[in-house]
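Hello again, I could really use a second opinion on something today. My current little project is about how a certain protein chain folds up. You're getting the sequence in one-letter code plus the fold written as tokens. Here's the protein in full, and shout if anything looks odd to you:
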Amino acid sequence: MRSGIVHPEGRQVQPGCDHCRLKCHEKITEVERLGILNAYWELPSNEEKWMFIINHSDKYTKRRTTTGKTHSRRSTTYAYYLESENARIQVCKKFFLATLHISDKVVINSHRRKTAYGTTTPDMRGKIGHRPRKEADRVSIREHIALIDRVPSHYTRKDSAREYISGELNLRKLYDLYMSWCAEKLIVPCKRSLYEHVFRSEYNISFHSPKKDQCEYCTKYANSTTEQKAEMQQQYDNHQRNKVRAREAKDAEKARAEQDATVVTAVYDLEQVLQCPALEVSVMYYKRKLSVYNFTVYELATHDGHCFMWHEGQAKRGGNDIATCVYNFSVHKASAGAKELHFFSDQCMGQNKNQFIAFMYYFITCSTSVEVITHSYLECGHTMNEGDSMHSTIESAKKNQQIFCPEQYYFLARAARKQKPYIVHEMTTDDFIDFERMTKSRKINWKINSEKERVNWRHIRVMKFDRNTHQDMMLYKTDYDEPYQTIELLPHAKNQQQRQSTRSQARIARSKKSTSQSNTKSLVNQPLLKRYAEPLRIPEAKLKDLMSLCDSNVIKPTYHAFYRSLLPAVQYDENSDTEIEQS
């Protein structure tokens, strides 16, 4: 192990010059050279070694150029001397360096350290120690990071502390923006290493990127030890089996839809939030922007793509809003003659797996020509499907495009696919349906199944509504390989029948039939309730940023009227929606 101490005995006199005009070997013997070597390396400090070099060499401007070039990078030269019998003898460079066992860089650096007073600057290497970074150095970094606009995550995460910023940025670009910001504010910037240290240690921020992540559980299993894998094996096998079963179910329903025009199989998902305006201007990274939502439905048999698009001033993106889009799609397919609808999606509870979605399916089977609806949920971590192509196609079309208002996103989505363009549905505030109030007004049972067991909605993998075989019931599976379980959606009607007089079995049967028919009929006649009474209000801070972009003409004047028509609000949570009761 190296200790950092140079041992003189480790140094040896190197061969000098062979044919030298100064005849160095004739003037200084090998014994004298060895003495000079030992004397130099026994000096206790670097400063004394530097002074030895300075005292035994002279630096002066070169007198002539011998390379034949008009311009030469070297402007100075050195003369070298060694002591012999108390005499100062000039030697050549090669002989000097070989005697002291050093390189020419040592000579150059020694003269650079020479002061005007004939001394050298002190050697500070290893003497600075740990210097704690001053708190004041971090202030400008925190101020800059606070200015960067946060991007909403793909899903509604009420309990997550993680924040997201635009995926177009990275730490290098952030630091470049910080340097420009400091120049504008006349602030001395900190080093990049400190900026990155503060960003990583004090903030829980990620750069937002599309949902193409690897499965967390599969990665955890792959990185586990042999003992850990043995403990995880059963759960891992179930995970893989569910992944395969879900894909097999999707492929089977896709094949049916290709053979039968009355069967529609589709996948749906909400694209990552689109920011508006979207411009390549540095100031945009500091401004809050309007969120534009794109809910996509992709038909597997026909390859038709549907985009339901709106912005945050029109509606939110909770269970009611997603259910409205699926309802509009389902009614459209029912009018075209569809009898069965089969949907596949990820397992996002707030958007795809909740009671609002379930009631919407139940309502469709009661009020349209659709007889059967199933919704299968792809395994977590393996939700990639054909519908993702819509998102990637739109993202590709968005590159290098200037977007000033939501309508430009609608046009971009229509033109994103050249062959068989996507069908874009521009949603308005009045289009959204309040399935929450509709389901509560019916007093529908979502919690207890027919076996008197409590239903855990998080474990549901398939839900099904079939008005021909299981009227007023929801069928569901918690495992693809198990049979369906049932939930009686209107148990109060059955209990009311049971309390009636048992004097006549025929009368009871007639009562059951009439009660069931009256319940279904009343559901068919139930009017659709509007979700929002007026357009939604935009957070005051966000609206202020949008107005500043208009005032500075970063947003073209043509679009100012749209942004000035947005309604302000002091407090507003764009991710909030009525809490969905689950067990």
Observations:
- The CA atoms of residues 336 and 511 lie 36 Å apart.
- The longest helix spans residues 226-259.
- DSSP finds 19 helices and 17 strands in the chain.
